[in-house]
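Justification of computing resources. Each target in the renewal requires a structure prediction run like the one illustrated here; the chain below, 160 residues long, is used simply to show the kind of job we budget for.
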Amino acid sequence: MEHTEFTNIKKWYSQLHSLEKNLFFLITSYAIIIISSSIGLIFLQFNSIMNISWLFYLYVLTLLTGGFISFTSRSLTSYTVFTMSNSILILIYFVLIQFVNDVCESLVCIQHIRFIKQFAFALFILTILFELNFIFFGYLIWAKRVWKYVDNYEYKKLNV
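Resulting structure tokens:
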């Protein structure tokens, strides 16, 4: 990375509002945690019983592009879509927990399957907590009018 590129990134980051900096940190840490745990969960998946890897690859792509679009457009509409897309991962973890419960009822639950269930449950709770934080920061950004509604004419007239 050249010095000018680093300077541009530093300049861009310094121009962010403090709420945006906190949200940027939150989205970055969420992406790192979800990507690393999804890779771990993919390695722990059941052999020939269940294949979940394509869902996680699709979700990671959505997470990265949604976070990037939210920050570059600074639009509450794109941020709302990004926040709503995170609920897909909550649903994926819930289905995974239900699947493991069904497998454990029909078969003897081995340690490997119990670990996957505990791992999925921890990720389920973590994702819900991050989602609540995304909603909270979205509300603060909206209340302080840091970002704008692109379609709202009255908001554009305020010149904030």
